[in-house]
Amino acid sequence: MPDTIIVEQDGGVMMITLNRPDVLNAVNDQLAKELYDALRQAARDAAVRCLVLTGAGRGFCSGQDLRGRAAGDLSYREHLRAAYNPIILLMRTIEKPVIAAVNGVAAGAGMSLALAADLRLASEKASFIEIFARVGLVPDSGSTYLLARLVGLGKALELCYTADPVDAAEALRLGLVNRVVTHEELLPATMALAARLAAGPTKAYGLTKRAMTYGLHAPLDAALEYEAYLQEVAGHSADHREGVAAFLEKRAAKYEGH
Ligand code: T3D
Question: Ligand 1, from 20, 23, 87, 134: best to mutate by most atoms within 8 Å of Cβ?
Fold first, then answer.
């Protein structure tokens, strides 16, 4: 049983709650491992068709546990390779929608975790801080890659140089989050969206994520070719057959995710 996260399943939705509220869900090695294991489990389990990541208490995640590193630990490079990079890669490649429900501060690698989700819903109490410069570090865990793609290079560098907090309203204006809701509405709104996505054509969603990710760094001709290839795959799915049948029969589609 994990100790630093809570894993709950509601229908096709798996919710993972980072659960070290006393330190705003700072990431220690145990949390990193438990989070990675939960994501792996979700990736393998066909019954999980959407993931939600949130934080317990008043924070989303304050990044690396600054009390957790000791002399004799792995080098920074090895630590990132071992603890963070596998989580970020898995979040970006898991072929199911991943939603971050950002309930409070998301700082440092905690902001990177939010950025690695497909969609971000934010409470009005959420804030985002590329806090690394305050402790003399480089943004990591995907922040240098993901932030500029969301808000543009100039804004991304400003946020990283200043390490100033971005509140929820500004995050929405910048395109850093998809939606801002009241604090009380955050989980209901997130779960409603997650349930809707979990009832969708999971196979097609997964391929969409793969194609979009590929398209971020591919030339147009290669992206078009890759879309055509993935459409061939989607075109043979049961969900595609069901979608067309539902249209012709004038009824709602009942997707099974394959
Ligand atoms: O391998 C490697 O190590 C490299 C990887 C690096 C990845 C990174 O994420 S580097 C960045 C690490 N994170 C930070 O520098 C953030 C540190 N936290 C803060 O600056 C502030 O806590 C916040 C701005 C996030 C929130 O401020 P505030 O005023 O709302 O809360 P607080 O009072 O500072 O924090 C509440 C408690 O949580 C407090 O403990 P206390 O005094 O009540 O016993 C605080 O010490 C603790 N806490 C918050 N963040 C961390 C933490 N404890 C350990 N590590 C933390 N990251």
Answer: 23
Instruction: Specify whether the CB–CB gap between 142 and 88 falls below 8 A.
Output: yes
Ligand 1 pocket, Cβ-based, cut-off 6 angstroms: 23-24, 26, 62-67, 69, 76, 79-80, 105, 107-109, 129, 131-132, 135, 137, 140
Question: CATH number of 5-198: 3.40.50.2000, 3.40.50.2020, 3.90.226.10, 1.20.140.10?
Answer: 3.90.226.10
Write out pLDDT tens, residues 229-251: 999 999 999 999 999 999 999 99
* Residue at token pair 């910048």: 174
Ranges of each domain in the chain: 5-198, 202-248
End-to-end Cα, the chain, rounded Å: 30
Tell me the C-alpha distance between 35 and 114, whole Å. 13
Tell me the pLDDT tens digit for each residue of 26-46: 999 999 999 999 999 999 999
CATH code 2.60.290.11 for 202-248? no
Distance CA 5, CA 3 (A): 6
Please state the pTM of the whole predicted model: 0.97
206 Cβ contact partners less than 8 Å away, ≥ 6 residues apart: 95, 96
